[in-house]
Design goal:
By secondary structure, the protein is α+β, with helices and mostly antiparallel strands. 42% of the residues lie in helices and 17% in strands. It has ten helices and eleven strands. A five-stranded antiparallel β-sheet has the order 1-2-3-5-4, sandwiched between helices. It has a two-stranded antiparallel ribbon with strand order 6-7. Strand 4 and strand 5 form a beta hairpin. Helix 9 packs antiparallel against helix 10. The chain is globular, with a radius of gyration of 20 Å. It starts with a helix and ends with a helix. The mean pLDDT is 96.
């Protein structure tokens, strides 16, 4: 249930709490829908010591995503009380998809990917899951991908005894051939953690983006993440490619971009994810 410190803050700002419905599925944060007499909000909280600045960064990311045509919850407040941080969001009621939902989702994501800036990265760091994500600005996409994404996770894996010398050397060999494989595109505003658990369908049948790991990166990073755990509906990709086509060789590039979330999963959940990493590295290091 809601810690007393957070409940006190809610009562002071929104009135008496009439009902709280916990959300399921969170492995980092606790959360749920809090209902008051004239208002309902979605609130999530965690330990301020374990995840410093997580919700401040998430709030900034959500605000950036709201430049797009996609539905994104409004940030109402970032709360810091005693041992806890909390994020208070507009409560969006869930609904069912329509025949047009996924095609529209893909099209609007493509339009969001046209939002750009001069450099890859972001003006602040954030989180990917419960791990900190560095977003130091860089003119060079491949250098950014190596230094801000792959190498920090390899360092964590090595510290846990899961990245032996041969494993690291396979990555180093891959780095040398990335210029021959990857397609360079303008920095795109991306969600950053776009798997099926990080969008919902609202009561109007629209896709809603939640729990982002926002940065300006290559747009194919988002497409890669959508396919990591089985892929989205075919209509999603049809809508995306009709609006913003990609170049040939996409499937191979997506495998490379999924090295990053697979390293995240390796560091969070253990060696069961290592075989996928080894398989991708072996394919490209023939």
């Amino acid at each position: 249930m809601i810690p007393q410190e957070i409940k006190r803050w809610l009562t002071n700002n929104y009135g008496e709490l009439e009902n709280f419905s916990p959300a399921s599925g969170g492995c980092i944060n606790n959360g749920g829908t809090a209902r008051f007499r004239n208002l309902s909000v979605f609130i999530k909280w965690n330990s301020s010591a374990l995840y410093p600045g997580m919700f401040d960064a998430e709030a900034k990311g959500l605000d950036l995503l709201r430049q797009s045509e996609l539905v994104v919850p409004h940030v109402m407040e970032v709360v810091h009380v005693d041992l806890y941080d909390a994020l208070v969001l507009q409560n969006i009621e869930s609904g069912s998809p329509t025949p047009k939902t996924m095609e529209d989702f893909g099209r609007k994501l493509a339009l969001m990917h046209r939002i750009s800036q001069k450099k890859y990265g972001l003006g602040h760091n954030n989180y990917m899951g419960s791990l900190q994500q560095s977003n130091n600005l860089n003119d060079d996409w491949i250098e950014f991908f190596i230094t801000q994404r792959l190498e920090p996770q390899l360092e964590i894996a090595a510290s846990k005894g899961m990245a032996e010398s041969q494993f690291r050397k396979q990555f180093e060999r891959l780095y040398k051939i990335l210029p021959d494989i990857l397609v360079i595109d303008q920095p795109a505003l991306i969600h950053g953690d776009l798997w099926s658990g990080n969008y919902m369908i609202d009561s109007n049948g629209h896709a809603v983006l939640i729990d982002p790991a926002v940065t300006y990166a290559h747009r194919e990073v988002d497409l890669a993440m959508t396919k990591l755990f089985g892929g989205f509906d075919a209509k999603f990709y049809a809508g995306y490619y009709a609006e913003y086509p990609t170049e040939k060789g996409l499937d191979e590039r997506l495998d490379i971009y999924n090295l990053y979330p697979l390293l995240i999963h390796l560091n969070l959940f253990g060696t069961s994810y290592k075989s996928q990493l080894v398989s991708i590295l072996k394919y490209f290091n023939k």
